[in-house]
Structure formats: structure tokens, C-alpha cells
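Section handout 9: paired folding examples.
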Amino acid sequence: MSPHPASPPDSEPMIRAAGLCKHYGDVQAVQDVSFDIHRGEVVGFLGPNGAGKSTTMKMLTGYLVPDGGEVTIGGDPILGDDLAARERIGYLPEHTPLYRGMRVDRYLEFVARMRGKRGAVMRSALERVIDRCDLAGYTQRRIQTLSKGYRQRVGLAQALIADPEVLILDEPTSGLDPAEIVRIRDLVIELSKDKTILLSTHILPEVEEVCRRALILAGGRLVADGDLLDLTGSQAERISLTLVAPPESVASELQLIQGVRTLIGQVQGSAQRVRFQVEVSGRFEVAERIAEQARTRGWRLLELRHESATLEQVFLRHTRGHGLAAKPEVSA
């Protein structure tokens, strides 16, 4: 879980989405999505491809106007006449719109000027983001000559140039190699000490390492919202077992054991070797009953272990049947 405990909720959330809706022609991409994120929280934003995550993030930052609902940042409407809400946000889109022909330093200076920085204030901001994103040896290089990992660092630097209170990061490690993923993840952990962060990703270890809370979107709707411990704790108890037994009869006999609720099995390589995942009520008692049944029937019990609920299981349970609910990435 996150190395930094969440701050107590303020009375006014830093990010509030209230009834957000967005259509693209006849396609309803986002449907009545509402949530609050308080100061100091680092929240993972999960969902299968096509769930509406990027559309929601664009509405949160003012890049898209919702067809219904509203967004406030620190109590100010994102689409208000003044820039108070937008000035609080640093945004890293999934596809960072970098000017690749520019040098890193000149691009960041351009962004700083766009954010109203001048003179000594601008120089201080540039020094801060170059140091924080570890770009010191690359400022004279054109962006197009950088690796994808360093281009992503430039994208993060532009999001941080105004020292925003809120960071909205859309797939910040997409397409990076494992070492660069860890570097970006460490940077996000460092940033989480003094910023409110909404992090969209398909890489679940990022959420487990960085976030205390997750939002899960599926089919354009918010289907789960909670502390990671609460979300995984709500999963059913499971047991994994592998045994050598007649596959045609063992499944039916296991299903008769008191406390066994659901049985998923598959025959493995060698004949008579069967592996099961068992959803149970009272895993310790059921494990003893399974072991006793194996002794009675003469089954050779190769494995019997309790399974801890994972974020992957939570994700799949909530998104199954919604669009392209491909299995998320589970390795760094």
C-alpha cells in the first residue's frame, strides 16, 4: 500500500465530480459518474479499455465539456469564468502533446510562460522540475532524440511547472520498460507527499504501491470506489488445491463438502492431475474437510493453500462483461 498515509478528509474535496455524462454521437461514454477526492489522497483510476477513463479525466481538467454534471477543483468550477480551478491542476495526458523539435529547456520555458511565469520565478520553476524529474543532463537535447521514458519525464515536468496542488496522470508509464516504470513510480510516490493525485493505469502494482484507494470504471459507470484494503477484503474466501484423482468424479464430490460455494477446475498435464480454485465460506474449516475427504477417497493431495484476495480479482469481478475487459498488467 501507499508509503504515505492519507490525510484526513477536508470539508471541501480537492476534486469533485458530480453526475458527469458524456456522449459521442450515439455512444454514451460516461454515465452519471460521481466521486470526491480529498486533499492529500492518491487515488488509482482503473477500468478496461473503452471504459471512459480518459474521457472522464479530460472533463476533470476542462479539456472536454461534459454533457451533464459538473467538476469542481478546490471548490471552484473547472469551467468557471476565472482560471482558479485550472491553475490548481497539472495534467499528463495519455499521449503527451510535446513539441518534439524543441529542446527540453526551451519547451519547458515555453510551458512556464504559458502558465504565467516570468523572470526569477520562471527560472526557479524550471530548476525545480528539471531536478525533480531528473532531466539535468538532457535539457540541451531535442525532445525527439529522447527515449520514451525521458519524453515521459518531460511530460511530467510540464505538468509540474506551476507547482499544482492536483496532479491528474493518464497512463504515465504506458509503453515504458520495467526500469523506467519503477523510476516514474518512485517519482509519483515522491510527489504524493504534497499533492492530490488521480492516477489512471492498467498496471495494478502501481496502484498497490502508490495508492490507498481505487475507483473502478466499467461501461462508462463507476462500479467500485473504496480503500484498497476494503475492496480486497470484500472478496470471497478462496482455496487453491491440486490433487491426483479421477477428474470425472472429484468435482462432484468436492461440491458436496459443507462450505464449498463455487468450484473452478482444470485438468493439468499428466492424467488424473486436477487443479481447482474453490470459493468457500470458512476457509480453514473447509480446508480440513477437503484434506479429510482426500484421505478417505485415496486422492493424492499435492497442494492445498489459502488464497489472499488481490486487486486483480477485484478488477475482474467488477469489469467482467464490460467492453474490452482485458486482463490488466500485473507485473512491473
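Moving on to protein 2 of 2.
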Amino acid sequence: MSIAWRPFVDFVSEHHSFVLTTHMRADCDALGSELALAAALESLGKKVRIVNADGVPPHIAFIDRAKRVEVLGEDVLASELLGDSVDAMIVVDTSAWQQIGPMADIFRESTAAKVVIDHHVSGDDMGAQVFKDDSAEANGRLILEAIEALGVDLTEEMATVLFAAIATDTGWFRFALVGASCFAAIEKLVAAGASPPRIFGALYEQSTQARVNLQGLILSQVETALEGRFAHSCATRADYETTGAQQNDTEDVVNRLLTIAGVEAAALFVEFEKGITKISLRSRTNFDVRSIAEQFGGGGHRAAAGLRIPQPLPEARKMVLEAMDAKMNELDG
């Protein structure tokens, strides 16, 4: 489903001061989308701030070398974003109130014109113009389309962060949504200066020992269920304390569970603050993990979804396992 970008071009031409934001614990797709769009808008003479609910995770800090991303409540006050100095706000890579955290209050209260650019199926009514294509493999590709629609020439900076966005959200181009349009976008980004070897090295060859140790613990605790069709593991608060790892050091581990022969879907349960469990779901078949996530207020894609359950880890795991069992039995029946 291609997007008609003309209304977005008009939106940009009609406004001067922009605030960009995205979901909490932003990944490369979210951050790359923000950073590339900010650079494009600034090339058109616009004033732009990137303000998120939390900071850039240390393991992907390379993506924001200029430290453009500001944190609400630390680098910027809410009052600075609600005045007349901001006339446009854009949310990228999500269309869910819950996912943008405290930035949701800013987005609701602001009198600025609003836009959402997203590639997820589910979403809330955020009172904004929505530019969405849920067939897109990464939000970064939509931002590339938006930049082209604006008539802005790609710089090496834009190309690098957008390459990182697309590469990470596609599991380095191995997920089912990857197609010709994805590789056509990648060709443009490489031509504009993105270096796949340098980006891969920054992403996957700069891990701390704590990160590696945590991932080792997670992989040592893998269990299978539903006759070997579902693999799951967890990261507890004690695991973080033992290894000294950061909260985001679990990123991409869930995909390793899919490498087990016979596994169709996988889950990683992460114990957050007391009584809250974050679950990442993945599938390598036509099994729709988004349908599981949506049962608990989460969302995402058919092959990659996420959710939070306000329950301790053991209870959350039991709930998801029961939902997975019911869904698989339904499909088998």
C-alpha cells in the first residue's frame, strides 16, 4: 500500500518549527527515522528538535554521534514544547499512545499540527494526519520516501542512519517482508554513502562483555513447549545485576531462539520494574505473533511483535504460553 506523500509535503511547507518523537526504548529504525527526517527538514530551513521519552541506548549510540536526541524531563521541559514556538509535531515508527510514554501528554496537549508516519498495523487515533504503510519492512523506508517527496538530496548522514534503520528492522534483510522495494531503497542509500561493513561493525561488533554475558545467560535458559514448536527464555532483574548489563542488552536475542530446528515461534520475557514483564515475540512461519500481542494490549507485525503485561515474570509467561497453545490448537484444528 503506497503512500501519497503530497499532503505531507504540504504539511512541511506550511510549518516552520518541528518536534519529532518516537516510541520508548527506541531502536535503530525509530532513531534512524527521526534523525534522517530531522536532517531533511533542516535542509529546507526548518527548525527541528528530537525529543523522546528516554535516551539513546548505549549499544546503538553510534547512530546519534551529534547527540541530537533530547530526553523529556532531562534536556527539555514540557513547557518548552507546548508554547507557540512549536507549530508541528511528528511521531515516527509507532501510532500508539502507550508506546511514546510521557511524550503522549505533550502530543495530546499541544496545539501544533500533528503527523504520524508508521508501518505498524495497529494504532490509536492520535488526532493526526497519518501516513502509514503496514506492508513496509521498516519505517526507515517510509522516511526515505518522504525525503524524496520533499525533493531533498540524500546526504551520507541520512543514508547511514536509514541503512541502519532498515537493516536492523529486517534482521539484516532476512525477514519475510523484505522484497525488491527494500533492496531498491538500500541501493539508493549505499549510493549516497552508507557503508554496510561499518554499520554492521558498529551494530554487532562493539558489544560489552556484560551484554555478551547476559545473552549467554538467556540462551542457557531456553525452554521449548508445544511439542518443540515454541521456544522461550527470560532475563530477570537478578540476571542484569549479575552481569552488569543494560536494559537494552537483550535486543535481537529472541531471534536466536528461532534458529532451533522445529521452532515456529519464540518469546523472550524480560523482567522490568517490579510487577512488569516485557515480552518480545517472533515467528519464522505464517504464525501471527501480532495476534498474541494484541490480546494483551501489545502490537507489531505478524512476524515480530511486543507487549507488556503488568504481572510478575512467571505469571506473564504462563499467560502467554496459554495464549500460544490456544492459537496453535486453533490453527491445527
